[in-house]
């Protein structure tokens, strides 16, 4: 790898070794002479779409009155304290809440579809389209927003998009109520008939991002050496460092240490899960932590590093699976997730479910902090990222799809003002919000999305 003094290093530069390919973070040395990457609008926009199943306590009539999901006030002065969004208070200047939109395509259209909400909802979240009921191969729903963005703006990155999940979603065939499992297994659709598989194992995602071996056998062989992937590029790193200035040296060292620390954490999880001790998730791969929070943080760190190195600009992240019986003891609730969501209208049960909602949202500040801590030119990655978080279900007790939870975080390269709560008029499709977000992502020529009826203003 040769560099000419004074010449800019190409942005798409890799450090390659045997079984390892490491993309570089953004460095000053990549800026051509006489140019600068400064403002938030100068760099590429990143997109993360996060789905959490089972709706929210605040979508129930009583829970709404308690403001268990969204705040009472609209505009720029609102109190997050009672809501599940309270953990986002430190990042409210990056927060846009859109309350009370509906996902009508998730509703049953025919008598035989009644009862199947859990098995079609996920497919509607990013497509805003109604899935064709089938247990066969003739699946059909719609192209998802993340894939529309990836197809337009992700093709010049090594990986156009990545799909991650937390729970087991590798079932096949039919699930229930006449629906193919794929409708609940993924939220990303490259076309109406092309669902994209989601990666649950942090080790698999790590190897995809950092090219640790060209085949499963090569990756397994490298891991048996008990070496870091960084050990295979030591010479390349040393050569590169001789061309960099002091600030870039600090950035490179910090980035590589983040890669190494993430690798160590995955190795510790694998060692624990192959030690012979009993597991809470005995069916999960060795790289999957039993602890929910640890798993989520690993996935968020993978996304932050991928954005820093521009390996990909698009992630979809499915944080739950419909009908999940997982227990989240750190939420303060000991009931399994799905039974807790069927609160029966009981006020105590609704309050308990709101604690689970708050716990899930409480995973986000870690990710927002990682993005805010990563600079690209004179802006950080939180300024350059749009994070969509929501659920395709409203009140889970009755499986409806009205007043569905939705908020957007990040600056999206200056396209989102933040510190804003908007309440939609009754009956407003969530697809209207998705259409407006698509426009802010640069898909200006999109006239309609799903069952949209027009744009939704994201300003006051």
Walk me through this protein's architecture:
This protein has 460 residues and is of the alpha/beta class. Helices cover 29% and strands 12% of the residues. It is built from 13 helices and 15 strands. The strands form 5 sheets. The protein has a 7-stranded mixed beta sheet, with helices on both faces. The longest helix is centred in the middle third of the chain and has 28 residues, at 246-273. The protein is globular and about 65 Å long.
Number of helices: 13
Cα distance, first to last residue?
A: 52 Å
Secondary structure: number of strands: 15
Mean pLDDT: 93
Q: Uncertain spans, ≥5 residues at pLDDT below 50?
A: 1-6
**Level of helix content?**
25-40%
Query: Looking at the structure, what is the overall shape?
Result: globular
Using the CA coordinates, give the radius of gyration: 22 Å
For the largest sheet, list the strands in their spatial order: 5-10-3-13-14-4-15
> How many strands, what sense, and barrel or not for the largest sheet?
7 strands, mixed
Outline of the structure:
The chain has 460 residues and is of the alpha/beta class. Helices cover 29% and strands 12% of the residues.
